[in-house]
Write a structure and sequence with these properties.
Elements: E1 2-3, E2 10-11, H1 23-54, H2 60-86, H3 92-101, H4 104-117, E3 124-136, E4 142-148, E5 156-160, H5 163-168, E6 174-180, E7 188-193
Antiparallel strand pairs: 1-2, 3-4, 3-6, 4-5, 6-7
The chain binds zinc ion.
The site of zinc ion has 9 residues, from loops.
């Protein structure tokens, strides 16, 4: 006795009594669904990266590492699931975990956008000094000013900036970082200025 790959009903024969698909047709349907959901997940990951650049969190790099780990775990799970489907093994539990992970990048993107868009807090101004700069090219370029931290327990802050601000500040310059609290308590950088 095994479970139908399409509808999850237990079955004793090749044709599922519940949805009427043979085991190979059910496998085909499941793999189609997996592909569609994976596409939704991938687009969500892109949406997240774009949203995270709009209202950049102070801890943006930690958030990006988290989403990166989640990204590879989810894709690994998708490959594992597909391998099991090909061999017609039990997939119900894995499938539920996988389907549960699909909306996560979309939810996080919405959270970061809402955190910035609906933030009515007044900015606080932190005067710090640029220690170094860091830029990573790519479809969504990452530019950071590394400055000394004003927060307890942190040595440096990696301030996300746009290209103009990245170019006009050099190591050794004083810079004022405008920090907002965020609607859900994720502090973000609304800009940098000269003292
Ligand atoms: Zn079925």
């Amino acid at each position: 006795m095994s479970r139908c790959l399409n509808c999850g009903a237990t079955r004793d024969e090749d044709v599922c009594a519940s949805c009427g698909l043979s085991s190979s047709a059910a496998e085909f349907t499941l793999r189609g669904k997996l592909l569609n959901r994976t596409a939704i997940f991938l687009v969500g990951a892109i949406a997240f990266v774009v949203a995270s650049a709009r209202y950049p969190a102070l801890n943006l790099d930690k958030i990006l590492i988290f989403i990166g780990v989640l990204f590879f775990l989810t894709l690994g799970l998708a490959m594992w699931l597909e391998g099991r489907a090909l061999r017609h093994l039990e997939v119900e539990a894995l499938k539920r975990i996988y389907y549960g992970l699909i909306p996560v990048p979309w939810l996080l993107a919405g959270l970061l956008l809402g955190n910035g868009v609906m933030d009515n807090s007044a900015p606080t101004f932190q005067e710090v000094r640029v220690i170094s700069k860091f830029a990573m090219p790519g479809p969504v370029p990452n530019r950071r000013l590394i400055v000394n931290s004003w927060r307890e327990g942190e040595r440096v802050e990696r301030i996300p900036v746009d290209r103009m601000d990245f170019d006009r500040f050099s190591p050794g310059d004083a810079v004022i970082v405008n920090v907002r609290e965020g609607l859900v308590g994720i502090p973000w950088v609304s800009g940098v200025t000269r003292p």
